[in-house]
Amino acid sequence: MSETNSAAETAAPHRYTAAMAADIEARWQDFWDAEGTYEAPNPTGDLAGNPELVAKPKKFIMDMFPYPSGAGLHVGHPLGYIATDVFARHQRMTGHNVLHTLGFDAFGLPAEQYAVQTGTHPRVSTEANIENMTAQLRRLGLGHDKRRSFATIESEYYKWTQWIFLQIFNSWYDTEADRARPIDELVAQFESGARPTPDGRDWSALSAVERADILSEYRLAYASDAPVNWSPGLGTVLANEEVTADGRSERGNFPVFKAKLRQWNMRITAYADRLLNDLDGLDWPEAIKLQQRNWIGRSEGARVDFPVDGTGSITVFTTRQDTLFGATYMVLAPEHELVERITPAAWPEGTHPVWTGGHASPAEAVAAYRKLAAAKSDVERQAEAKDKTGVFTGAYATNPVSGDKVPVFIADYVLMGYGTGAIMAVPAHDARDFAFARAFELPMRCVVEPSDDRGTDPSTWDDAFASYDAKLVNSANDEISLDGLGVVDAKTKITEWLKAHGVGEGTVNFRLRDWLFSRQRYWGEPFPIVYDEDGVAHALPESMLPLELPEVDDYSPRTFDPDDADTQPEAPLSRNTDWVNVTLDLGDGNGPKKYRRETNTMPNWAGSCWYELRYLDPKNDQKLVDPAIEQYWMGPREGQPTGGVDLYIGGQEHAVLHLLYARFWSKVLHDLGHISSSEPFHKLYNQGMIQAYVYRDSRGIAVPAAEVEERDGTFYYQGEKVSRVLGKMGKSLKNAVTPDEICSEYGADTLRLYEMAMGPLDVSRPWDTRAVVGQFRLLQRLWRNIVDEETGVVTVVDTEPDEDTLRALHKAIDGVGRDAAGMRFNTAIAKITELNNHLTKAGGPVSRSVAEALVLLVAPLAPHIAEELWRRLGHTESVVHQDFPVADPAYVVDETVTCVVQVKGKVKARLEIPPTISDEELEAQALADPAVVAALDGAGIRKVIVRAPKLVNIVPA
């Protein structure tokens, strides 16, 4: 502390300083905790018999789940938390019963990796991180209902995550009813014969394994052998959404390969249409809705079956079924399950040498190419590479309309993630197929008449001809002709023909794939599944939940050379044989039997798929959530037909992953009757990011931002010139500023005000520590307007304010109220500053009514100083639950406004006129003004444009 500041504080011992702020903030935080100030009453018990509370509208406000990082918070992290807190406080003051709390999403890879590196149990490090983060958040004065907080690693919580998994496992999607139903109802259909088994045998004639295999084709949670994203460097498989665009793991940046493994999946694709359609009723940013629509990727087309001699059919999905006569070859994704079945032992006679890739047999060619494709990301495989690669499988399929035998290739530009993983190639009318056909000397057939002068012989073309407007040609057989038809009519006609002949039908395809739900990790929720000696999966009974994670000495999955695709996962739990191999009585009438536990764990997304429900009823150990409580806080209501959280704030990075998964779980739980809301989050708001300058030396290495000096616009670190760019804030970039630092220097209220004043909430903005002092001075002026800095005595007077002050006050009340409701906190602070400055400039003591209203305006934004001043003003009840001031309309409307009068676009006069003046009256006054008359200088008037009450524009003749 400087001598000047020390002298000032001695002269003004009751001045608002950082030390005083720290004392005030700590005292009121303790008080709020002790009094349960932020506890939100539930409709059962708390609200029952309390008409005043029952009459209040509710408001459920949520932040996206934080992960308790060991690095703690920097000032960018609390931006959303402060915003929701300000909004929640304003909602309380405007008569709402507000639920606002915060928990921790605590399973996941970072804690496990830290455990592997240090030998510290993930629970120990995670709980320490939670404790640290909780203290940091508490210091900010966030008004959370602490009774409702939890962490996903608590067994009391993940018991219900496991329970939900079992509800999904024991369900199937009834497409006729368009909802999920219990699997027992499906079994009853098979038992009664109402639904035939695949081979027509009676259900009673099937073995347990056969029944399980049939049900697995219907269950919403199922295990299957399927292509997965395998990351040897992480030792685990990943969901599509966890793989970056360049084919690497989102966490760790390791290479990702395609491999076939038995994994748990969620049949989210059953809900594709509902996930798409229900977006329309949500109050979400359009950009987020668009990302979800694109990820779901609905397209209409046709399913077409291409018979393969002796091995069934290859099914393709196409949106251009009208071009079917032009399909001259087929391509399967290298991972397609039919590849092994259709690949013959030897090359067919006459096989083109270029098709074989130089291999002695089809099996050898296929194996080599598969290995090559597995090392590429989906993005790399879809890139418009100059050279097309692939290999002939040795098999031929039959084009169902032309009867031609068409060769079947595998190529990396076809993915299992779209359609059926197989395409009919129409090289004359698709650029990629054209390039592939040229590379492999394959035939082409023109079936869409070109609109240019290239003719109809594709062998003379330089590229494919693609059009949705041209007519069909060369598209006829003995039973059907598409020649001369446009695309739409041709699609309709050929689709009807395909269905009539049993070789296809119109259908809808989705880009969305089922959700890969297994991870080869230790630090995650155990699956409540055991396997019998036949490998049949059985659900644990509810009485055995939670299935807790065992204590182990080795947390690390088996990792491999990141570039070695020929490896297999090994989950850490598989090494704990005493836990894996158990004898259990599952209560199914079969008595105690030997079982093997599932050794994979759930992904870190599992716990965040339903946490909004646990906030409602966090101590319930009998039900997922009390139905009356869920209905009260999240049930459908006017304007919210699907129900859900009233306001959900978080970053745009969760546009697909978390939000799509949570929506899926909500819909399943809704279908099964467990909750009334079919959507988890009604209103979504994406806050921007607080950025910071990153300083790098000549090597490109980040240097500590706090130690950089600026000299004449150039930046230096330890005497060396460094570059400066605006980027993220973080420990690795050496530019992180912790909230603790700012709180220590200025107080939490100043930090809250600064973050809210930096700009619109949904826009990213740069952090500038030097600018924080501006908000600190605002609070100091507020304090001085109410408290004498020398004596500590409240200086307000019980007299009526003058009219200018009343107008300033009520304009502020009106503006701040509207801004707070619309989350425009930066402009709300500007209006508070304007009112506070008015009182400062007016001089003399402030009227009590004005001072109290000002404190109430500040309360949502700077709650500690507001609580302190409210009590000093003589009130005995917390400011938190006071009514927000209401503006008097008579003082909000200005007595006069300034109207600008322009002649030829230049300002010639300013008129003070009533805000309610009519266009005619304003025009007359403007034309009569001496300055306007002089500017016109006798010229005639061609036009007068009036925008009452602010503008008159006169255009001379």
Task: Explain this structure.
The model has no long low-confidence stretch (mean pLDDT 93). The protein has 31 helices and 31 strands. It has 957 residues and is of the alpha+beta class. 33% of the residues lie in helices and 18% in strands. The strands form eight sheets. Strands 22, 23, 24, 25, 26 and 27 form a six-stranded mixed β-sheet that branches. The two termini are 69 Å apart. It is globular, with a radius of gyration of 35 Å. Among the domains are: 1-56 and 772-893, Isoleucyl-tRNA Synthetase, Domain 1; 163-293 and 515-586, no CATH class; 298-510, Valyl/Leucyl/Isoleucyl-tRNA synthetase, editing domain (Isoleucyl-tRNA Synthetase, domain 2), CATH 3.90.740.10; 894-956, Ubiquitin-like (UB roll) (Roll).
**CATH domain class name of the domain at 298-510:** Alpha Beta
Shape: globular
What gyration radius follows from the Cα positions, in whole Å?
35 Å
Largest sheet properties: 6 strands, mixed
Structural class: alpha+beta
Helix content: 25-40%
Unreliable parts: none
State mean pLDDT (0 to 100 scale): 93
Assigned CATH architecture of the domain at 298-510: Alpha-Beta Complex
The fourth-level CATH homologous superfamily of the domain at 298-510 is: Valyl/Leucyl/Isoleucyl-tRNA synthetase, editing domain
End-to-end Cα distance, whole Å, is: 69 Å
Beta-strand content: 15-25%
Number of alpha- plus pi-helical segments: 31
The number of strands is 31
Q: Using the coordinates shown, work out and report the CATH topology of the domain at 298-510.
A: Isoleucyl-tRNA Synthetase, domain 2
